[in-house]
Amino acid sequence: MPENTPSGRPAITPDVDLDPPPVAASAPDAGRHPRPRRSAATRAAILAAARDRFAADGYERATIRAIARDAGIDPSMVMRYYGNKEGLFAAASEIDLRAPDLMAVPPEERAARLVRHFIELWESDETLTGMMRVGVTNEAGAERMRQVFAEQVRPLLDAVCTVPEEAPARAALIGSQILGMALCRYVLHVPPAVDFSHDELVAWLAPTIQRYLTAETP
Fold first, then answer.
1. Residues of the chain with pLDDT under 70
2. Phi-psi domain of 167 (left: phi exceeds 0; alpha: psi -120 through 50; beta: other)
3. Is residue 209 within 8 Å of residue 115, measured between CB atoms?
4. How far apart, in whole angstroms, are the C-alpha atoms of residue 132 and residue 126?
């Protein structure tokens, strides 16, 4: 039964359980359309607000309350989905680069394939842009970006590097080109960088990255 307000009218309880209730297999109304599932939208709003807040305030100063306010929900919802700030940061910084298998690409085309993949990835995944902003403003974000690079990019480049001991240096040089352009194009919005087409970016960046992949050490 709903509680009464001081005026005697029933209080309105906010709908905080956004997941649809379980439906029994033998329910008589099983043929009806279920209540629309809104938890995915709620999670997306929380994560978007979290990335913005972590970027603006840093990990230490960002609070669950501020993130919930930005997302337009109650702080209890953030705790319900992610437990605490550490869990929320881990979820907000979850990145899958879906790196291509360069071994399946002709050696002379690997740099162009890599550049085009990352351009398309940056423009289709807001998580990357959000984490780039976090990474340039606080150490927790920077460490997360380093971790992603080590776990997902380094193995990709190690596989095609003909001199294994040179792989770390070559990977860092390649990262400087890809991440540097991403910073200029998607975070700082430097006018010439944002105006390049995909083909133009590939034409400019691929020769340099190809050199980092194959050239002899200076």
1. 1-37
2. alpha
3. yes
4. 10
Give me the helix-helix angle, 198-214 and 110-124, nearest 10°: 130
Q: Give the H/E segment covering residue 157.
A: helix 154-158
**Token reading at 158:** 């190690």
Q: For position 63, what pLDDT does the model report?
A: 95
Give the closest residue to 135 by CA, choosing from 169, 102, 171, 175: 175
Contact 46, 67 (CB under 8 A): yes
Residue with tokens 């990474």: 135
User: Dihedral of CA 196/199/200/204: which sign?
Assistant: positive
CA distances, 99 to each of 125, 157, 200 (Å): 14, 10, 21
* 100/105 Cα distance (integer angstroms): 9
- Residue 63 near residue 147 (C-beta atoms within 8 A): no
Task: For residues 75 and 65, give the distance between their C-alpha atoms in angstroms, rounded to a whole number.
Answer: 5
Q: What is the pLDDT of residue 15?
A: 38
- Per-residue model confidence (pLDDT) at position 36: 36
* pTM of the full structure: 0.71
Q: Do 147 and 137 form a contact (C-beta atoms < 8 A)?
A: no
Other CB atoms within a 10 A radius of the CB of residue 126 amount to 14
Cβ atoms of 100 and 114 closer than 8 Å: yes
Phi-psi label, residue 36: left if phi above 0, alpha if psi -120 to 50, beta otherwise: beta
Report how far residue 101's alpha carbon sits from residue 113's, in angstroms, rounded to the nearest whole number. 10
